[in-house]
Amino acid sequence: MSILELLRQRFDSALQSLTTDTAPLLDMIRPSQDARHGDFQANCAMPLAKQLGRNPRDLAAEIVSQLKLDDLCETPEVAGPGFINLKIRDEWIAARAFEIRGDDRLGVAEAAQPRHVIVDFSSPNVAKPMHVGHLRSSVIGDAICRTLKFAGHKVTSDNHIGDWGTQFGMIIYGYRHFVDEASYRRDAVAELARLYKLVNQLSDYHAAVKSVPELEGRLKQQQTELEQQESSADKSDKQATKKLKALRKGIEDTRSALRSAESKIAEVANDSTLKSLADAHPEIARLARQETSKLHAGDSANQKLWDEFLPACLEALNRIYEQLDIHFDLTLGESYYNPMLAGVVSDLAEKGLARDSDGAVCVFIEGNAAPFIVQKSDGAFTYATTDLATIQYRVDTLKADEILYVVDKRQSEHFSLLFSTVDLWRPGTVKCQHVSFGTVMGDDGKPFKTRSGDNVGLESLIEEAVSRARLIVNENDDRRETPVLSDDERQRVARIVGTGGIKYADLHHNRDSDYVFDWDKMLATSGDTATYMQYAYARICGIFRELEVSRDSIRHSKSPVILSTPEERALALQLIQLDMAVEAVLADYRPNQLTSWLFEAAGKFSSFYSACSVKNAESEELRQSRLILCDLMARAIATGLSLLGIETVEVM
Ligand code: ARG
């Protein structure tokens, strides 16, 4: 049980005689922000006093007199208007640190009520290369799976790949008309990616050409309207100024749409090969859509191509997952649910949840303007239908208690409709949560793109991280009197540092915020980075090597933990609370709770290490105790990072 849970338990007993509703009060026991106010603070006396019409300081004193905390805390202190400050006893901290010194789980208990949680993450649309946009879902989802598992839950990781969408119609069309056989044989995925891009480009070209006259007409009309408004408007009329502003904004929007259309046209028009392809395929967008429809309708030629393309696409994905050390229990893509879609729609209709609306079949959710479309008027099923079928499968066949969707926050509308529909369709069967996240930005403050405006490919991003890390590893090892790492070892460390850097940089941000991708910050050897943590780990391993002490023997040491300085105390108190960090991650699926805990621990370790000599400790007992703290710290880093999907190395 974590310290916080223990404290809450004790407070719960003490509060029984004062109120029946203790839960919100217990929630007000928190770690102190300021060490001068003790280790924990309980702010529950004030709201309770208000409720009971009593003096808060008196009530705080009464609560303290009821509390049975002697074994765990020093005498609680009532401060200010009625805060209760709690300081954990040194003996208790030392005993707990001693107790967990040999525990692989560092004192983190397994969940009393394990749940079966399905984590739907990564889930890229295949047939196009994975790009930086897929990084967050993959990395956050993997960290959540690892943390849930560590906490004792049953976890099924499921890569719900988009393998049944319109992109397949595009590559089928592309393959039939533009394939370069030799390239396809050499590297099928690269060739399919080229075809996808080409079909997209040609479709965009025709759409742009078609849109220009309309846009020009609109611009002219908007300009005329603006002129009229400008000449007639009364400057002091607020309404009129507002209208002027809106008109100017409308003109700006039309201009930017025109610019974008013109650049799409230019891309093709300025390239004679592309231009002649475009001219030869004026109906490309419609025909590519038709290929998708044929595939969905069971056309055997298209199905055959799909069967051929898919393994190649999966192989390309797996190369990346391998590099990132991310693995899935299941990879059930959208295609898997295709046979179940019609059944879902008829079941919804039978239960009176879905009905016809302009030829489409929709679920209408109260309080929501947009309907949830489960079948379009042309008969096609949608992303929504597939997600409903997937939930049905996950509940009925996989027996999920909870489903997490680690998906970009731009899809929150979809998930809110999906979950509301499930609440009506299968009430009380499963708990669903959208674990949403923001965008990876470039240093220009816009979504991270290459200089030419393309998405940043994930494979090249990882490659670059590893080669940058390699330089750091080389430099570090070359600085040694005699370098200790072989070429292979350097490369292995570089992979661990490079991918760890990318992952940590992502995970240490609050997942809902956007963040700026920054190579230098990511691989910095100081600050809140994986590299810093990995160095700290290797350095502690180095201490043990230097002193010729085995870490294993320390874990079985009978020597007590001694907290002779405030730094030792602060470090030990932090290290015995990994359980709270894990709990904080799982409360709302936020891995940054764990990175903050790690970073705080590293800071406390560094204060400890500069204040307390291990080698020249005043006594052998103290030396042993400090070695226990060092080993605990190393294991806290290794365990903490492993929950984030990041490896450590003993020498780097
Ligand atoms: N393939 C989708 C996309 O790239 C994400 C799928 C997320 N999972 C789900 N069950 N909807 O946007």
Summarize the structure.
58% of the residues lie in helices and 8% in strands. It is of the alpha/beta class and 652 residues long.
Structural write-up:
- The protein has 652 residues and is an alpha/beta fold.
- The protein folds into four domains: 3-88, Arginyl tRNA synthetase N-terminal domain (Gyrase A, domain 2, 2-Layer Sandwich), CATH 3.30.1360; 116-164 and 309-441, Rossmann fold (3-Layer(aba) Sandwich), CATH 3.40.50.620; 166-297; 458-643, Isoleucyl-tRNA Synthetase, Domain 1.
- The chain has helices spanning 3-15, 23-26, 45-52, 56-66, 90-100, 135-150, 166-178, 181-186, 188-232, 238-269, 272-280, 284-296, 300-324, 341-350, 383-396, 412-425, 458-478, 487-507, 519-522, 530-547, 551-555, 566-575, 578-588, 592-611, 620-643; strands spanning 29-31, 40-42, 77-79, 83-86, 116-120, 154-158, 354-357, 360-363, 372-375, 402-408, 431-437, 440-441, 515-516.
- α3 (45-52) crosses α4 (56-66), α5 (90-100) crosses α22 and α22 (566-575) runs parallel beside α25 (620-643).
- The longest helix is centred in the first third of the chain and has 45 residues, at 188-232.
- The mean pLDDT is 95.
- It binds arginine (ARG).
